Amino acid sequence: MTTSLLGSLAEIVGPAHCLGGTDRAPFVVDGRTPCGVVLPSSADEVARVVTTAAAAGVPVIPWGGGTQMSRGTPPPDGALVVALRRLNRVVEYEPGDLTATVEAGMTIEALQATLGTRGQWFPLDPPMPEAATLGGVLASNAAGPRRHGYGTARDLVIGLRVVAADGQLVRAGGKVVKNVAGYDLVKLYIGSHGTLGILVDVTLKLRPRPEAEGACWATFTSLAAAAAAAAALAGSELGPVVLTLLDERAAATGARGSALPAAGGPALLAAFDGLGRTVAWQGDEAARRLRAAGARTVDWLEPAGVARALEVVREPRRLVANPVALATASVLPRQVGPYIEAAHATARAAGFEAAAIAHAGHGIVTLLLTPGETPRPAVVTAGVLAEWRAAARAHEGHLVVEWAPLGVREVCPVWDPPGAGLALMKGLKARLDPQGVLNPGRFVGGI
């Protein structure tokens, strides 16, 4: 069947864009090898590919830049990967309306470069923008440190088109900012991890590039003091676009690798953008308040320094060598400091070390677990993650295992135990993908 299926798919996308040999190696996830990889060049080709795979009973794995493929339970073996990197064009760009329709395979870096020629940008800064595609970012609802000021993809996307499980092209939203009619299906598809449809193009709400930007890099003697200062700025009229807390280890390695002022303790990054005079006032006032809150040092970063600092907090996995696990917890903002302290204590008790970065205004904490002096078995790693999850739930939050070896994830599941909403989610999946064609089993509750 595989040979026959690949032959049919090659007729759709062209033989050069249908991979069935060793060239599938970059698309292996957790040891699961796809039966083939196709690279369509249009929404119509995506639709025909999905229709063909569904008729053959072969599940389909959407693939953007691959930057989020470590998240989720392992894909089924022998599935078909539909890689969208050839869908990388700007379909329509209206600078006067601050909107653009872009194909889902365009990388975030390429998108920003295109918009930058007109002094505009898409204010979403997910990790690895050079590889992350727009479709993959939206499917995983990935975001970066600027989410404090600009929100996430659900706040910035006004329309999209998806290929449904039956191969039909479905449009949600529109091409104008004021879309209020009917159900808001845009938010349904964003963050659905490709389980409800394959994104093929997206209409975005853009912003003018700010005239100026700057940031305060403040260091503290304790995590509690840094967290309290973050909470004070988060609730103030200063309006930082970035408010990121780094524990001592993250701050030290981040500063060392990016020519930032030495930390020597926890650090807080508060960034501002907008008109030059406004940013200057925000910086001065933020520095004054940070010193009053107990900051040991406060350094003002000019644009080059801001760019380096933002790269540090956008790419937490690069902060430590050879992490054994990466998890993201969401807790109430006021619980960020206590939660990180508890996570450190859990890691130390099990013979590990930990580092943490938090979007303090939203209570989103990224935790990296690294080995101590003595290697620990997978079951011990899983135990630490399970305790981190229990602590997050005790702090009215939840935890997702972003990355860990398969043996660890088999003991400690990627997702929190499903809540009361699982029945609704399964109902939507059954309605939109009754055969279970799209990314089956990878999302919450085995969806």
Structural notes for this entry:
- The chain has 447 residues and is of the alpha+beta class.
- The protein has 4 domains: 82 residues, Uridine Diphospho-n-acetylenolpyruvylglucosamine Reductase, domain 2 (2-Layer Sandwich), CATH 3.30.43; 119 residues, Uridine Diphospho-n-acetylenolpyruvylglucosamine Reductase, domain 3 (2-Layer Sandwich); 103 residues, 2-Layer Sandwich (Alpha-Beta Plaits); 94 residues, EIF_2_alpha (Alpha-Beta Plaits, 2-Layer Sandwich), CATH 3.30.70.1130.
- 34% of the residues lie in helices and 23% in strands.
- It contains 15 helices and 19 strands.
- The protein has an 8-stranded antiparallel beta sheet, sandwiched between helices. Strands 5-6-10-8-9 form a 5-stranded antiparallel beta sheet. A 4-stranded mixed beta sheet has the order 1-2-4-3.
- A hairpin with a 4-residue loop joins strand 5 and strand 6.
- The radius of gyration is 22 Å and the shape is globular.
- The relative contact order is 0.11.
Helices and strands in order, then pairings?
Layout (H helix, E strand, L loop, with lengths): L1 H12 L4 E2 L16 E3 L4 H13 L4 E4 L16 E4 L6 E5 L4 E5 L4 H9 L3 E2 L12 H7 L6 H4 L2 H4 E7 L5 E5 L11 H5 L8 E8 L1 E2 L3 E8 L3 H12 L7 E5 L1 H11 L8 E8 L1 H17 L4 E5 L1 H12 L10 E6 L5 H14 L2 E8 L4 E8 L6 H17 L3 E6 L2 H6 L10 H11 L15
Parallel strand pairs: 2-4, 3-4
Antiparallel strand pairs: 1-2, 5-6, 6-10, 7-11, 8-9, 8-10, 12-14, 12-15, 13-14, 13-17, 16-18, 16-19, 17-18
Helix pairs in contact: 1-2, 8-12, 9-11, 12-13
